[in-house]
Amino acid sequence: MNAAVTPRAYDVARVRADFPILSTTVRGKRLAFLDTAASAQRPLAVIEAVDRYERGSHANVHRGVYELSQKATDAFEGARERVRRFLNAASIKEIVFTRGTTESINLVAQSWGRRLGPGDEILITWMEHHANIVPWQMLCERTGAVLKVAPIDQRGELDIDAFRALLSPRTKLAAFTQVSNALGTVLPIRAMIDAARAVGALTLLDGAQAVAHERVDVRTLGCDFYVFSSHKLYGPTGLGVLWAREAILREMPPWQGGGDMILTVSFAKTTYNELPYRFEAGTPHISGAVGLAAAIDYLEALGIERVHEHEQGLLARASYALRSIPGLRIIGEAKEKIGVVSFMLEGVHPHDLGTILDDEGVAVRAGHHCAMPVMEFFNVPATARASFGCYTDDADLQQLVRALSRALEVFG
Amino acid sequence: MEVKDLYRDVILDHNKHPRNFGQLDPCDTSADGNNPLCGDRLTLTLRLEGDRVTDIRFDGKGCAISTASASLMTEAVKGKDEAAITRLRDLVHQTLTAHGETTLPPAELGKLAALAGVRDYPARVKCASLCWHTLGAALEHHAQRHADHGPVTVSTE
Predict the structure, then answer these.
(1) Contacts of A352 in chain B (CB under 8 A)
(2) Which residue from A27, A352, A368 is facing B63, i.e. has the nearest CB?
(3) How far is CA B74 from each of CA A117, A157, B33, B56, rounded to the nearest angstrom?
(4) For chain B, which residues lie within 8 Å of any Cβ of chain A, measuring from their own Cβ?
(5) What rounded mean pLDDT belongs to chain A?
(6) Which of B63, B66, B119, B126 is the best substitution to test chain A (most A C-beta atoms within 10 A)?
(7) Are A351 and B4 an interchain contact pair (Cβ–Cβ within 8 Å)?
(8) DSSP collapsed to 3 states, A297-366
(9) ipTM of this model?
(10) Buried b vs exposed e over A125-159: b needs ≥16 C-beta within 10 Å?
(11) Torsion of CA A160, A161, A162, A166, to 10 degrees
């Protein structure tokens, strides 16, 4: 067969049918779930994979000699291999399972970060989630290192010249998000990684908001750490991934002690397990890893590029529709964005807006999005944020627009 | 339950035109309240004769529920002594947290009954109760005045 395959049009109705929760109702209304950036919903494929594992394969991993324990270990390590392929990492030794993006970053801060001292610098951006600010502040307090912050502009884009200017041989790490969770901005990560490498700094990329929307290849990207959470990728909560180059991981001391991360323990001396197990103390979230592997299979079968294209269409239509609402101001108008629209409606506090939208069946996030510096920059206490995923459709957008008109009516 | 039951005309009116807005200077006691989850901030300043509130103002920024609740509260407590305020505060608290109940709010609440709709939106209870927590802190602060105290801050978290 060498005939060109014509790709079918993206069938969002079929995708929606894969997500049982989308057929539930909220206060008697159709659910328009527009909070995927906070946590994506789970397709049946993930729910069933976890269910199959729980019913037929569960035991502790890396321990028993009995068959069931082997089945669980195979499922867990199979998931690790699936993540390796997803990121195009060189080896499974580079894939560390954590509780989530936040824990992945804390692991790097607490383990790798021990080498920092007074005078060393860490560079982040103004757009970071608190998870990529606070661990570094804590590290700086412990070590005397200095945290630098690259500014953004009124459109919500990074000032790349300022970022470059803040880099110096003192910079030991540049840690930044690939996509802003509050604004949807896609950062110029290639230029940022190149600039950081040029001064000898390592780079950590927060991929929490990016992995479900863009294909990631850690070997082409050239970063040193890549972190993300399963639940933003249509997988279970409570599980995340830290990818790091093997050579770097090898130099990092363990951070949490316990079972599974050791080879031998005696009161005189403990020897640590090999990579990646050295960083996975205790019984891991086995079913979560199984679910994540199923989520990756699901997303790749849909086609990340096609999902991205679908979401870009939604973003364009939503931005257009929202701009036509009187008194509505979109916060964050970067040229390159993912499917996230943050906004304010004049005269209506975002929390009141969130309640009124909820009453119309529309789920949006109202708050500071764990990015208080971004809110401060735009001089707003909070915003309402609508975010899209593979299952978002035009009916969701129409419901949002109708609900916003309702809010204007109520607050007249 | 309709969203209009939450955003009744009284609430919308007090949000748009808050009563007793601003700060009393000088004042006999004051307290700051904040809800870190949503960024609501509130400052109460009071004048007292004994334990009777003779004047009260509120200042700050917040959603419609928190602004209206503070505005209604200032009207309700003016002229009352601490015992009466505590009774009222307990009634308000019971009303706000009576999730799922359909009974009429108690008559003693007066205009404060307009906040009863909050009981069907548990996520918003903190917005409505912030001012009452702050008032409690201000009065307690006043009662303990003989000890050495600075201004107090309460948080709903």
Answers:
(1) 7, 63-65
(2) A352
(3) 53, 44, 15, 6
(4) 1-4, 6-7, 12, 37-40, 61-65, 121, 123-124, 127
(5) 95
(6) B63
(7) no
(8) HHHHHHCHHHHHHHHHHHHHHHHHHHHCCCCEEEECCCCCECCEEEEEECCECHHHHHHHHHHCCEECEE
(9) 0.85
(10) bbbbbebbbbbbeebbeebebeebbbebeeebbbe
(11) 100
When pLDDT is cut at 50, 70 and 90, the band that residue A6 belongs to is low
Could you give the count of Cα atoms lying within 13 Å of A282 in the half-sphere of its Cβ? 8
Structural domains for chain B: 3-140 (3.90.1010.10)
Output the pLDDT for position A308. Answer: 98
Tell me the domains of chain A and their CATH numbers. Answer: 12-34+304-411 (3.90.1150.10), 48-300 (3.40.640.10)
Specify whether the backbone of A234 is left (phi greater than 0), alpha (psi in -120 to 50) or beta: left
Nearest-angstrom CA–CA distance, A333 and B64: 28
**pLDDT tens-place string over residues B16-27:** 999 999 999 999
Collect all residues with Cβ–Cβ distance below 8 Å to B89 and sequence separation of at least 6: B132, B135, B136
On the question of pLDDT at A374 being above 80, the answer is yes
Closest-CA distance, A359 to chain B, in angstroms, reads 6
The span from the CA of B12 to the CA of A125, in Å, is 39
Contact, A411 vs A348, CB < 8 A?
yes
Q: For testing the chain A interface, which of B2, B3, B15 should be mutated: the one with the most A CBs within 10 Å? A: B3
3-class DSSP assignment, residue A45: helix
CA A293 to chain centre: 16
pLDDT, mean over chain B: 90
Rounded to an integer, the average pLDDT of A389-397 is: 98
pLDDT of residue B151: 58
Q: pLDDT tens digits for B59-74?
A: 998 999 999 999 999 9
Q: What angle do CA A131, A132, A135 make, to 5 degrees?
A: 75
Active site residues of A: 370
Report the 10 Å Cβ neighbour count for A243.
27
Residue A61 confidence class, pLDDT cut points 50, 70, 90: very high
Q: Dihedral sign for Cα A337, A342, A343, A344, please.
A: negative
Query: Using CB atoms, which residue from B39, B123, B124 is nearest to A382?
Result: B39
Kindly state the tokens that stand for B109: 């609440």
Position B5 confidence tier, pLDDT thresholds 50, 70, 90: confident
* DSSP reduced 3-state for A120: coil
Residue A124, φ and ψ in degrees, nearest 5 = -125, -175
pLDDT of A1 higher than 50: no
A368 shares contact with chain B (CB less than 8 Å): yes
Contact yes or no for B64 and A352 at CB 8 A: yes
